[in-house]
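Hey,
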Amino acid sequence: MFRAMFLWFGLAVSLVLLAPVSARAEVLTAIPASAMDDPKAFWRATMEEFYGRYDSRRKCWVAGAGSEPLCMRPHHLAEVVENGTRTFYVAMGGYAVTSEGGRADCHACPGKLGLVILRPKGNRLAVVARNSLAVSAGSWGQVPAEEWFRVVPLGKDNHGWLMEFYYTGQGYTEGGVNVFGAIGDRVVDLGFISTHADNAGTCGDGLGACYTHSYEILADPSGADDRFGDLIARKVESTDPEATGTVRVEFSEDELKYVTPQAVSDALGR
């Protein structure tokens, strides 16, 4: 059983044309390159760069995104090497401050997610790509927990985030993985891949047969020369012995998204 359940809401982004890494306009920040070797200094400088001052009362960095005040904290950090250069995939999480000065606390209340890709340029760090810094994600005013974020290779010298989330309603649980990555200088939503379904809360004791179907999403170990290659869906558990074991998750060039394979949808009963 999952330790927590999250509901993802509206990660809407505009589709833009694919662009190679060299076409990205890297914008210098005030973050010193030396901070890459000091996690505390890195997070302090990064949070100040994107969210302003630290509020000691709320214990978060406060900023406004449009008309919406935010309370944001460090969430997940991954270092990779792209084109021979150390590159940081940074996730920052928090919430929109309510009119009462707190955090919304309801099942349908998402948290806020900021995603930024940074790499050194001279003696400072530069932004390779970023999202709006205030994308809605999660439930109960929080984004999914840090351990539900992974950074994996999506293709040649290109990585992205996998964010897991699950939703339970009326005894049924469904879940999946949202993929985020850079297209040009923007971090965008690259699609949702369904990975889980069970009826643990409404089966047994005369209520009908129980079922569980669960897959994990992995990077393709064979690699790809494309910026967006395939991912892999691998069966972890299923009460159906005939359920598909391993299948490729293809990237749709038309939609600019990863699409749930039909074999996995069928196995999940969707």
